[in-house]
Amino acid sequence: MPANEINPADFVTEITAQNFQTDVVEKSQESPVILEFYAEGAGPSDELSRLLGTLIPSYQGKLFWARVNVQANQQLVQQLGVRGLPTLKVVKGGQLLDNLEGPQTQAALSALFDQLTMSEGDQIRAQIAQYLSVGDRDSAMGMLREMMAQEPNNVSLKTELADLMIQANQIQDAETLLASLPADADGIEKAKSRLHFVQQVSELGAIDALEALAKAHPDDQSHLYHFACALVASDQIEAGLQVLLDMLRQDKSWSDDKARHTLIRVFELLGKGDPMASSYRRKMFTLMH
After folding, report:
1. Residue 128: its pLDDT value, please?
2. Closest of 96, 100, 38, 95 to residue 71, by C-alpha
3. 62 Cβ partners below 8 Å, 6+ apart?
4. C-beta separation of 270 from 240 below 8 A
5. What residue ranges define each of the domains in the chain, with the CATH number in brackets?
6. pLDDT reading at 2 higher than 90
7. How far apart, in whole angstroms, are the C-alpha atoms of residue 83 and residue 136?
8. What are phi and psi of 277, to 5 degrees?
9. Mind spelling out the 3-state secondary structure of the chain?
10. 33 φ, ψ (degrees, to nearest 5)
């Protein structure tokens, strides 16, 4: 077996009352333990076992698979409150985290296992994303500042904080932070692009008024442009991209190709590999050619 290949026996074992303490409780201090209760020949149990046998090896030893044959371990079944099959329990740090009863889909298991195997940094970023999904920028920025205190040389955290500051309308603080960073800092183009759009619309008035002007004068590219920038600045990015595409359809050369240049700037804001950026880049290319 190649040196970098993991032996399945290293992360799966049969559990009894005798080895439960060492192979579940103590093992869970090192990595999460997926504790499977199964019965040989039971259809749903066999299906779940096949899924686990496919998924768990792909995590390269970050998960430990512990299997309890319910027919041979009635004492454990009763002690752990197993009521039916199949059942999965997740043990981490000696504590029961999750209890899953009944058949499970591969997608659901993958989502759970991804979460369990996240690094501490990834977990923090996931929490930040959760804060942002409910509009709680203050908590997200607070968590970023905590990360920055632990990683003072991580410039990507600083550019991310600057981007959130811009979204929270803390423009002067964001500009000061960006000015202190290297020109090629990871993520700086995203923050600078967002700042550009915020500055573009800072004195234009409310977005509702800009939308009304755009609708009242559909052939006036300047009103469409202002509305598109306002949409992007308010994080309604796809709507802004659509308005910019409409501008291209009307007049590709307006104001020295401003619609095309602005689309490219939005793509920079979204970042490399973003699905929305890729989709609208293709649409822009089709319109231009």
Report:
1. 86
2. 38
3. 31, 32, 116, 117
4. no
5. 8-116 (3.40.30.10), 120-184 (1.25.40), 207-288 (1.25.40.10)
6. no
7. 40
8. -60, -40
9. CCCCCCCHHHCEEECCCCCHHHHHHHHHHCCCEEEEEECCCCHHHHHHHHHHHHHHHHHCCCCEEEEEECCCCHHHHHHCCCCCCCEEEEEECCEEEEEEECCCCHHHHHHHHHHHCCCHHHHHHHHHHHHHHCCCHHHHHHHHHHHHHHCCCCHHHHHHHHHHHHHCCCHHHHHHHHHCCCCCCCCHHHHHHHHHHHHHHCCCCCHHHHHHHHHHCCCCHHHHHHHHHHHHHCCCHHHHHHHHHHHHHHCCCHHHHHHHHHHHHHHHHHCCCCHHHHHHHHHHHHHHC
10. -105, 125
pTM higher than the cut 0.85: no
| 263 vs 282: CA distance, rounded Å | 11
Left (φ > 0), alpha (ψ -120 to 50) or beta: where does 188 sit?
A: alpha
| C-alpha of 112 from chain center | 14
Measured CA to CA, the distance from residue 7 to residue 57 in angstroms comes to: 9
- Whose tokens are 């920028």? That residue is 137
Phi/psi at 52 (nearest 5 deg)?
Answer: -65, -40
Q: Which amino acid is at 139?
A: S
Q: Give the pLDDT band (50/70/90) at residue 133.
A: confident
Q: Which amino acid is at 68?
A: V
**Tokens encoding 263:** 């689309």
The tokens 């559909």 sit on which residue? 218
Pairing type for strands 87-92 and 33-38 reads: antiparallel
Question: How does pLDDT run across 230-258, given as a tens digit for each residue?
Answer: 999 988 999 999 999 999 999 999 999 99
